[in-house]
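Lecture notes, unit on binding sites. The following record was shown on slide 14. It pairs a sequence with nicotinamide-adenine-dinucleotide.
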Amino acid sequence: MTTHTAECPSSPEIGESAELVCRNPRTGKSLGSVPISSSEETRSAVAGAREAAITWAALGARERRRHLDRWRRTIADHRGELLGLLSDEAGKVPADALLEVNLALHHLEWAAANAGRALAPQRAHSGLMMLGHSSTLVRRPYGVVGVIGPWNYPVYTPMGSIAYALATGNAVVFKPSEYTALIGQWLVDAFADAVPDHPVLAAVHGDGATGAALVEAGVDKVAFTGSAATGRRVMAGCAQSLTPVLMELGGKDAAIVDTDADLDDAADAIVWGALMNAGQTCAGVERVYAVDEVYDSLLERITQRAGQLRAGVDYGAIAMPTQIDVISRHVDAALADGGRAVVGGRESVRAPFVDPVVLVDVPEASTAVREETFGPVLIVNRADDVHDAISRANAAPYALGAAVFGRRRGRWIAEQLRSGMVSVNGVVDFGAVPALPFGGNGASGFGRIHGMPGLQEFTTCTSITERRLRLPIRPQRFSRSPVDLGALILLLNRHRWVRR
Ligand code: NAD
């Protein structure tokens, strides 16, 4: 019997029967249920995964790639079911669902193909003090990785951890969001169908209590994606057992528009970056800083484009009911703090949908500018010049992604930003490049998924030195002679010869 209780009033139903009832956010209709995992069941899932991880790790990257490719094909073959679930359970419109599944499979393919390189031993120079030695860094999987996922991209986001952890030889116990449990279970079932001999991907279900139980269940690493507030609790749990943790947290991404930007293209990209998936994108655009010269022309284009879009048609529903309150609060705060709405306003909130809201002149100290809104609300503020734009973009506590529009100085501006990722003349483009690491700085977290660093994130390493030559000078022994000490003095003196 479970010990779980609902954490907030609008959590999905977590009833006596220990079942999580999954609902369509648009209609509230039940779509089915999954059993809630007790702490004991969570521990046993980790123990089972640990056993399966041994043979999985021993397969080697090439053999694992064959299995992961089979999983990829299974997902692609049954895409209709997954796309349907993304629409029903996560409230997405078909185009958003299609993009998400494409991105996830692109990453799965890359991780499987490149894990061998990430695990290859790396030679290091031994240096003067260790002449006669070879030095090598060897990597191996952690064992069992606990992946805790959010609901906004229930396939793409956890895949950034699951695919990369599996490819490097780990087993994974996955706790999907309680709002998208059916999608999480579908992915795990598809893996079991495709790779029946290796039960290295298991799901546990429930709300935050199941997530906390997973953190305490003896996993070797936790990969958490979610809000900064929950991230702090997960870190506190990991601190008890010194379990390493990867934190993919929220964002308040800015787009900077420079004087020589293509304004039509910038407006197109910004409006999509702000409103796609109903604004429920960690690296979606929430703030725009356009330099004075182009501000009015850009705003006109953004207003015109955003004004034509409608929730429920061009993008989907707000999947988590409590988010509606956050969105409303931020719109209220922006207006109360002196901002103006040029598209929509408070009336745009008609749960579970929110029509586009574009706000201008919102003071930088407003909650609406500093905190993650996670809804289809875009703030477009005027910057004196590009330096002002950069400093305002960098002032938020979050530093996940960013976008820059401009010809001459695009790359230079990108390099001045604190964010973990920047797209120049595009939005969230970095998320579609599997070879590029994904992750944030500051309140947006630490560690990386995707790319080589994302594969190595799921490996632990051992540094090995090996004596190859028995040199006559050996100062690291009690038997050292005056000649050994003379060699040490010589090595030390070398540092005095550097140019003053
Ligand atoms: P959330 O923090 O509410 O929940 C995330 C997950 O943590 C869920 O599975 C939840 O059940 C679990 N959880 C809750 N309490 C827990 C606890 N005490 N211990 C362990 N697990 C616990 O986040 P959400 O609302 O599901 O997702 C939205 C957030 O995720 C946004 O802030 C968004 O920006 C962020 N996000 C970040 C990225 C990224 O890559 N940086 C990607 C997607 C979403």
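Take-home: Residues 5-249+452-459 form a domain with the Aldehyde Dehydrogenase; Chain A, domain 1 fold (CATH 3.40.605.10).
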